Amino acid sequence: MAATRPNRLFRNLTAKIAAIPMILTALVVFVGGTVWTVTYSFTSSKLLPKTKFVGLDQYERLWNTPRWLVSIENLLIYGICMMVLSLVIGFVLAALLDQKIRYENTFRTILLYPFALSFIVTGLVWQWLLNPDFGIQSVIQRLGWQSFDFDPLYNADIVIYGVLIAGLWQGSGLVMCLMLAGLRGIDQEIWKASRVDGIPAWKTYIFIVIPMMRPVFITTLVIIASGIVRLYDLIVAQTGGGPGIASDVPAKYVYDYMFQGQNLGQGFAASTMMLLAVLVIVVPWAYLEFGGKKRV
């Protein structure tokens, strides 16, 4: 009888054969490219890669460069604000839509529509809206509030918050949809029981519903964080990194050094640091999802 059992190696053989191109692509392009990038980050490569190793010189130079430090600071400010505000805004919008309001599909479509736009389009739209000559500031001043001043993209101290506005406008709709899906998965008996017990709705959300939506929150945070680390298009479209280097971010730093500064070694070192940032996000998420608890 044991002889008639199909060998496990040959089970689902068609699916395994179909997955070979994907596996090879992952190994060659992603794993191979990552190893190649990390390796050459320890070299003095300029216009072309070369195997002259210089140890940690590229990393020392990286962390002694004011532009890199500014880009890290901007990424932290944008990242923290984006995570907190997009989660709050997305959850509040989802909670409102979960009340079975009229024209829910229309509101959901309108709120999700910005996510369908590219970051380049979003950046250009908000560049126009935040332009002091014909944007929001100009419109409000024409209405009579001559003292109104709102030009964040032209103020080096707050330019990153102008970029944040555009990011929230585009990303909050996706968070809203994810949260709404999580809320729709909550058993309605929980709401009925809370109403019978006289528990206020806000307490039900905070102490019952949100803890039950933990997997949704974790997944949403990972999606948001991955978008934050690779922030580039929005910066290029809105500010180009300016004024000066006030709105620079790591991804733009990498691009400029690799393709404009002709300094591959420095670009590879910055890319490796971005890879470490991604690992800091992915590894805890993987642990929480797959290794935090022993499954029975």
Automatic annotation (TrEMBL):
Q: How does it sit in the membrane?
A: Multi-pass membrane protein
GO annotation, biological process: transmembrane transport
Q: Which UniProt keywords apply?
A: Cell membrane, Membrane, Transmembrane, Transmembrane helix, Transport
Principal subcellular localization: membrane
Q: Pfam families from the entry?
A: BPD_transp_1
Name one cellular component (GO) term.
Answer: plasma membrane
Membrane-spanning ranges = 20-42, 75-97, 109-129, 158-183, 204-229, 268-288
- Cellular localisation: Cell membrane
Q: Where would I find the ABC transmembrane type-1 domain in this sequence? A: 72-287
Concerning its family, UniProt says:
Belongs to the binding-protein-dependent transport system permease family.
Q: Which PANTHER family match?
A: ABC TRANSPORTER PERMEASE PROTEIN
UniProt protein name: Carbohydrate ABC transporter membrane protein 1, CUT1 family
Name the source organism: Primorskyibacter flagellatus
